[in-house]
## 1
Amino acid sequence: MSRPAPKRALMLVGATTLVAIALARASAIAQPVGGRLITVRIDSVLAADTKEGTDQRLPDPIKHQLAGLFGYSTYRLVSHQEITTNWGHELDFMLPGGRVLRVAPQSFDGHMVAMVVLLFDGDRPVMSTDFKLENGGDLLLGGHRYANGMLIVTIGVQTQAIPNASEPASAPPVRVPGSSLH
Amino acid sequence: MTQCEQIEPLLTGFVDGELVPPQMQAVARHLAACPKCESVLIEFSAVGERLREVAGEFQLEGFTQSVMAKLPRPTPIRDRLRSFLDLFNERLIAGTALVAATLAIGAWTMILVTPMARVLMARARADKSAVVASAKAEVHGIDNATRVAAVTHRSQAVISRLESQLPNVAVWSEPDTEATVIWVPDRR
């Protein structure tokens, strides 16, 4: 038995609306943000038990996090790298000790930045992860032995509006020079 | 056996009128002709009268009331209910105290004796640093554990996927500093 025509039309409209809402939501989640640049900041910190205290060059939030998370007596900033780019680029950072960190910012939902991060040991990938990071927040990556201690890498992101946002952003990655702090 | 010897056992029954008619007739015919048995009969009758005088009639009037007066009186329902509740309260308090004591003893036994409790307590202590996942060798994906950690503890990062070929990759978050750490140790 076929349903009455008005009821079928109503169901069709409802289903179409639901699909449209789902597509719009998925699009809003996945769409890279135009009109904004992203700065990825990588700080490599040597953590050791040499009782030298905390490097004053480290940002205060990072000092606080390191002190709250680990029990080392020394935190020394070994390198600072920063790249500002637009969305869709893969950014490679050479870490002290030879590992390479590849960061690929994916999207920004107004509050958090979605990104893919790969860690290479030589040519071999040792870790791959997808995560969202608060705009202006940090994620810590550690575990690699370096010098007389442990290397702890902070991955920070900060988005910023492009001054003339009407033009599509197409800036190539800009690396901050002189990042080695030995 | 003489006729008097046959009649004499029947005399008490004759006095009380308990003999069957032929016996009554035989005893009466004999008594009329035998002064000895008649004197015995008179003696029986006199003894019977004296016994009745001594015994008198048993008084049943007021018997029921006197017996009932000596029985314990039924308790009113209100008193019975109150006594039941008192008993219940006593048992409830005693039962509660017993259960509490048992639980306390059980908890102390578990804490002091069982290794599992020590593990649980250690886990609870470690919850602050919230080590939530550790990838095993050839592990692919600790997605759920990581996501739970990042949601449960306020953190700046939400990890949706993590894969590694290394055996001891760990992820944890620290609520106090809102920091999330991925620990990727060197291959040993």
## 2
Amino acid sequence: MIKYPFTLIYLISSLIIIVLPFYWWTYNFGGLVVIETSPFQMSIYFLGTFLKISYVISAALEAFRIFLIIVISRDIYLFLKGKIIRNRILLMLTISYLVYPIIIYIVITYLTSSHGIYSNYSFLEIGKELVSVKYENANLLLTFTFYPQIIYWIALAISFLFIPSYLETRKLKK
Amino acid sequence: MDLVKLIGAIIAIAFFLAYIIITNVPANINTYVNQPKQIANQINYIIPKNFSISSFNIDLQNLTQLANEYKQISGKLSIEVPSFYHNLMGNFKINMPKIPKRITGKLFVNLSSINIRGVYLNIYNDFNQSIIIENITGKYLILSSEQYFTPMEERMIFINITNFTGFYELYSKGEENVTFHINVDGINFTSYMILSKSSNISLSVPNYQGGTVSVNITNTFPYCIIIDNITGKYLYLEKNITIGSNATSTAVFYVSNFTGFYNLYNQSKEIVNISVEVDGIKISKEELLGKNFNISLPNTLGGVVNIKVYNPFNFTIMLYKAYGEYFQLESAYALKPGYSYLPFNVTNFYLLYNNIKDKAENITILVGIGNINITKTFPLYSSINLTYYESGEVSITVSNPLDTTLIIYNITGKYLYLLNKTEIKPFSYGILRIYVTNFTGIPNDKITLLANVYGENISESFEVSNSLSISINQVDVPVHNPFNETIIIYNVTGKYLYLTKIYTIPPGCTQLLEIKIINESEVFNENITIKAQIGQTNITYVMGL
């Protein structure tokens, strides 16, 4: 019945993922700083206390969510009308999360070197790492844990539906 | 850019702006920026800054020093009570001589002859009564014996010359002064003349107003009595005299006005102040001196007693207080080694005597040896043993160098305990009154201290070691967890201190960390290592105290 089932599933799933208010990743720096994040919301905890700045950041991200909901809803509408739609949004968002640990690495390396802090932190993409930090007369042994939530895996899986979706729409173009 | 995307973007931006306006983000921008700083700053309040762990120190050094001294020395502090007189009834009989209203008369003295042995004087007594020439003195002249002259008697007397050459030189120059000591009816007076070749001098005693009077006093008290003073309107005792029991002695009075005295005396109206001493008991009272003169000492009398106190040690000790029901040491005295006489005020000799007789009078003394005061009560008739088995109250000065009030509830040991709860204000001193039941046991005694510092009760046991110094070797440090993460403190270690166990402090809670201190005096100089966990972070922090 439906011409491009992958595209339909991809578009509707993308919308659902964007609407769902779940965090995608958790970055835990030894419990001292915990960042829970998704492209549409963010919570920062410092020594167990929720930082109020998170609200402002989240507000901007929520605005982004609203924008994406409108754009994808428009695409679904057009798709159902028979227009060929190639929406890369979810793919871009999920792939971009793999880049964040690199940014974190750059930031931490910059901060430690500029403050004279010795640290044996080496790049961590996902999982756990024991980081030793030496600053003046204090020694800190932190466990860095960067791990995605299930919602992220689902989102990543859905975003890969873009490939069959792309292929089926390309076939049609021929 | 199509229209829908534009509208979407506008809606998104509108949403964000609405949020910023509704929650007033610009006004709260400082809150957002400062919040992490504030959280970070709370690290400074985890361990109280004003908590000083090493300054609280109770020094019982003097106590142990005293205990050690007691081991080596022992002695009896004795207070020798005189045999207090339960009844001081008795009297003085004062035999006043017949005192004339006035004495007039002349003594005619003529130089009869001089030889190398002496001088012959021809004397005529013009007084209408007998006189005694008690002495005639001059340089190089001596009268060998008293000369008695009846009224109108004339005779020659001989005066010895001790050094003729010297005498003759003075005599030739007219410089030989001669003093006549004359007694007329018990009244003494003196007169002067100059011996010369043409000496034919009359010695007159006209209207003699006053002079010394020799008076016999009989003591009918059953005790030896010292009369220190008798003073009246017209007379006083020239010097104190001692009269044995039922004995008579001669007292020399000076009478300033014979006429005035005579009138008062005859009417028994001469009021005299009398100070007597009966074997160390000093009594002062007023009496009327008359023909029938009696002094009685009533039972209700008090007075001052000099009491012999023996310090058995070879160093000076302080006797701050010594008192009983009817007597009291006048003021604090430093007792030198050996015997001292100290004045005690007695309120009632009679009752005191009865109490001593019934063995009911106790004496309480406060003795200071070094900085330690010992209070002892013992029966007055006995001596106090200051020996190694001694017990007593000891006062120890304790300094509080902390900025908080130090409350010491109790100090207890097998051989000592604190007499009362003591509060010591910040940066000041306090006196701990400790009762020691046995000084010998002190150096090895185990002592428990209950105190309150920084509002926290602490209880500590320690041993009085040979170092003679006791310090608190445990402190309870209140540690606050300001974070929303649990803090686990695994260890606080240093060369001279350690944490007794692992502490888990829930978010927002405060817990007391029991820290043992091994060496209080060294603890300030060391670095301590704190091992703790916040969240999943292990922290090893080295800090100096």
## 3
Amino acid sequence: MSWFERLMPSRIRTDVQRKRTVPEGLWAKCPGCNAVLYRVELDRNLDVCPKCNHHNRISARRRLDIFLDETPREEIGAQIESLDPLKFKDLKKYKDRLAQAQKKTQEREALIVMLGKLKGLSVVAAAFEFGFMGGSMGSVVGERFVRGVETALAKNASLICFSASGGARMQESLFSLMQMAKTSAAIGRLRARGLPFISVLTDPTMGGVSASLAMLGDLNIAEPKALIGFAGPRVIQQTVRETLPEGFQRSEFLLEHGALDLILDRRQMRDKIADLLAMLTHRPKP
Amino acid sequence: MDLNFLPFEQPIAELEAKIEELRRVGHDNQINIEEEIERLQAKSHSLTAKIFAELTDWQISQLARHPQRPYTLDYIPRIFEDFQELHGDRTFADDHAIVGGIARLNGRPVVLIGHQKGRDTKEKLYRNFGMPKPEGYRKALRLMELAERFRLPLLTFIDTPGAYPGIDAEERGQSEAIARNLLVMAHLRTPILCTVIGEGGSGGALAIGVGDRLLMLQFSTYSVISPEGCASILWKSAEKAELAAEAMAITAEKLHALQLVDGIVPEPLGGAHRHPEQMAETLKEQLIAQLDELCDQDQEELLARRYQRLLAFGRFKEQKP
């Protein structure tokens, strides 16, 4: 209240509190086309804009939830948690960043792995949680991924991984870099056994994750318009000092340059991947 | 200031210049100044020892990128016999940031792959500053498969700021090229011995760095991102590179203590660039000894051990449910 209002109380009474009538979170604005969308409808549409088909980023848990059959589901490696082997500290301590990420995402780490079924087919499905320190790959992500591979080997299941990551986790330094070698080596075991690995690249898949497990799928599938690449667009721009071409490092660009097998709409993901897996493993159409 | 010396090497540079000058004077005047030269040399030696005993991680990372540091092609003729360079990825181009070929090490035929940087501006551009494009990694891949096919051990030399971040590199699948090498090296049916000779820059280094043993020269570095890059992201300023270098544990000594590296190859006093011949000699001995051990192993055992070694990377805790 200003000093003037205190001296001369206004006769017009407007209740500031009562102004807000729309509850928060009921409407969402599409980052693609700016359309105002009804949240419930957006949810029903798997977070794809019904107007422009923009694929919103979704959490790892929701990703697995909409992909897998409802039962059975069993989480793998949930008990594995981060250590801070270097006692890393930049402007903040790594420990604090971890705690913060855990609080924000309600997840313990940036990769969730589950054993379950996809239209009756045995699968291990993994998904990166981008909200957890940019989905960065450190020791825990690497280990959980490898446990997923080992479970797939043990159960004769296929592996599907949805990546969404900025790359390696700097706070674990060389331990992180070595996760690239570790996860890639494990994929080699799947190949030797003839079990399919389907890599689904979602927005964004960059750096060390892109340059290891994400590009090693028997099939590399991407969601529309996902940012996918090794170096970040800003780093490239600083290096080459040219304007980057339109649509550079987007799914469609990668498909055109031969890095992807196909681009899939999120709403077809379940049906299409189930059918592809069935063909790869000589099973009837699910 | 002598540009071939780093700032912290300047006191050594000054002494060395003085010695050089005295030598010239000695020649001109026929005066015996040997004693004085010897005295200065002893001083230079102890000064170097003193400076190098207290190097910070940031100084080591500068040494790893020292303009005079020996590169892959400086080592090859000093370590190997009968080297024949093999070019090209058979698909697109010959990437000059990676060199490879076939040679003998102490009589044993081997396949070599290494990053290559350039020394003067022209050469730097020709080598793309040691930053490979996908065709470089695919050339390396082709040579790895050649090694496997002919049962030749594979030796790699790592020295790169990183894989090239460019439009063309992305178009041709930089990520895929690196990823595929990781997968292939993990299961390649021949011994693989990797040595970081200078700068181990992230995925671009790892793409020829997966194997049975990993050695690092004493003043080389290996990291997930350059100190400058890390500083600009986490400290929001590239100026803090010194702090980032310290925090990331990028030196041979620290990485060895963390069991991420199998062995450290000691460098001569003042670093590899002061005595390249001596460095090559030490490295050669190490490579021969390590390779003898690896080649003695049964192949299935070797591959099983390599896989276990790769899977053991990482530190985490596991709560029992």
